[in-house]
Amino acid sequence: MHAAEGGRPIELDDLVPEIVARLPIILAEVRELLAEQSPDYAAFLTEDFAEVLTASEGFIARLVGLAQRDPSTIAPQLASGVEQAIFEEIGRIHYEQQQDVTHLLAAYRTGAAVAWRHVSDTALHLGVPVETIAGLAAVIFTAVEQLSASSLRGYERAQAGAEHAHEQQRLELAELLLSDRCDTAALRIAAARAGWTLPRHAAVVLINPDNEVGRVLLDRLDESCLQLRRPKMLVTIVPDPEGPGRRKRLATALRGSGAVVGVTVPLDRLPASIGLAEHALRLKHLLPDDPLFVDEHLDAMLVHRDDRLLAALRQQYLAPLASLREGTRDRLCETLKSWLMNMGNRKAVADELHVHPQTVRYRLDQLRELFGPALDDPATRAALLLALAWGPAVTETDPLAQPR
Description:
- This protein is of the alpha+beta class.
- It has three domains: about 160 residues, Globin-like, CATH 1.10.490; about 100 residues, Alpha-Beta Plaits, CATH 3.30.70; about 90 residues.
- The longest helix is centred in the middle third of the chain and has 48 residues.
């Protein structure tokens, strides 16, 4: 075991000048190793060698000082606040330059391994006790881990901030698309900021925000879709949904979500299109398709656009049925609707209702007694079909909905 000047035992403080003297060799060796693994970091060491050398001298001296203390009194954070802030900034810059943070952390490990080999060789050469060397190793590698964690934290914070800003830009774009101020210039600027390619056409998808399955399925749509939340609904803007195979894929992706898919329109028509989709969402109890494509039910939506008008239509044209008992009324309504839709073909009516043709004849005789010659009038037939085809309106004034 070697002794320091004056015959006193070797202490860790005696390592500092020895290690500092070897720092140029250590940094040069690290630089050579990084030249193959990470050329950018090797170039940094070459360009800023003096600054790195000075910072390393102070870092080594402080860590050696910490290693001499009672382990129970060593602060949990071995790297100083300034050092952590610097390394956090390094991580942030790596994200902004779109560099892989794993390469940075690997460079830290490479530097720590090289440095420790030189430190331990020096300590053994001077005769520092093995248990003291072990304590120094724990301090050095813990500090390096903390600095690595600082860089990773800086990288992740920058990433989270950028992702939040990107989502905000996408949200602003979606709001603009659904507003009445969607002029071409503003739209192009907002789309460029959000990194969104402007499609020629788009459609909106609406779901109830309380539908957990629907929310999950919406989140699985591809990145080209824009999402935003409105009162009582979640809105997704889907670009070019009528592209080759896209409608089928959309139907498959949204099955089970309770979604309403609006009509595909040019971008400047989206504000009007969402109004139609909202109306379809209110009619989900009548239009049970899942997902529901609005363009497949425009006739039913037109009829139910105003329940009061539908109720008035039913009251006027179905009045002859209002006085019948419920069971009889339902059978005659079913038969009349089928007869109208099958253009008077009694056999087709019998097949559709799974009844004997004679039963159809009997019911039609009852209907003719109730309606008289009106059943032969084309305009009356059209009105009756309109009144029957989509079921009763949701209104207490509907004559067929009232108990008798």
